[in-house]
Input
Amino acid sequence: MRITSSNKTPYLNDHYFTSLCLSYFPHEDFSSDSENEAFFRLDEDGGVISAKVVITCGSKMGAFELSENDIEQVIPMERNQVAEVVLGLCFTECGKRLFGFVPCWGHLAGLRPVIRAEHYLRRYDEETVKRLFVSNYAISEEKTSLSIAAASLAMEETKKLGDNDCFLYISIPFCPTRCSYCSFVALESRKLRSLLPDYLDALKRELSDKAELIKENGHTLKGIYIGGGTPSILTPEQERDLFLAIEGTMPMGDVIEYTFEAGRPDTITEEKLRIAKEHGVDRISINPQSTNDEVLKAIGRSHDASLFYEAASLSEKFAFRSRNADIIVGLPEDNDERFEKTVTDVLSFGFENITVHSLTVKNASLLSKDPSAYDPRGSMVLRHLSSSHASLISSGYRPYYLYRQKKTVGGGENCGFTLGGKACIYNIASTDETHSIYGCGSGATTKILTPSGIKRQSNARYPYEYLKNRKR
Ligand code: SF4
Output
């Protein structure tokens, strides 16, 4: 897509124009030889901000103009916010005329709408925030209610935390096979998995370093999240060893939540769950993504639905405080009937947390090489998001964390739901950036909240680079 602009104001930049275009063209690369084009004009004349947008898509063209005099500002706004709203509404109106719809998240830029909802809920009542989202940001009523509900619960949950509380994230980036939609570093071949013993040694050394840092910063460790990859790919001995290393280095006395993202049902055994329980884990995740075997095969999983049912039943024995199941909408080979069964299946096991992800096709995934395998416009994604959210809410679940990603099919979102009092507080802290997080392992990022903002430090992305760096 080609983007041209005439911006006579100091308020927005070209990057903002690009991010707007992603809502109608999520898989575009912004090259100059594309047949799609967008033109943005932003002006401030006599103190009045006005915008013009022209979008050309193949042989079709749409254009729209809007000024700040044409809109109702729901709350008092700074000039840059007025520019954002005028240009954004102009863009979505132009897109609606051309494509016949407004994206469900309107023109809201940024991947964390809940942070914005929290910001406004601290200052205005819920009705005003609703009107602001719908009228000024063109967000659908459904997504507005979802983000306000998630923000309200997240704010309630974070009251349990003090300013100096922090979390620890440990990355185990190894998996039995690579899912076709995966863009994470998830080493799956036998040769690469042979790195695991060295990787765990390096991880243990990093745990000591991070424990020191937590102490130096005067932080209190409140939660631990072992994620991946697939942490349950570890052998029982490796798993026990890792738990012992955590206990031997970290200040565990104030920990209120301990997640072991078991992940893939084909790696979960009774022994591994028992070890996790013995070492204080109180939250596990078992992620089927779908309970249809055709879908599981199409996404490159090496297990069928029966293994998920077994792992889910097995987990019931251990009375973890909370169990999460991840499902994904929009997967290849999925359809209405199959997806409805997936939702019914995860609900039937009484998971305390259920996270509904939207299919996201990033360039690093195998699926990006095969666009015919999924619906890039994402009408199924949006339909299945609505139906699953409705089923969860009518079964007593409440949304508690939510984030969007670039290249999500249909412009949907990922949203975690919880049954009463069982929200994963780490998920809230990491998506809403409310507390410091110390990351260990390859691909992990340490984010320290300071009065002047968040200081980030990322480890090497790939395990072999991580090992090399640790040796140095
Ligand atoms: S289980 Fe998760 S991390 Fe592993 S390959 Fe699949 S999507 Fe990637």
In short: The chain has two domains: 2-152, 160-464.
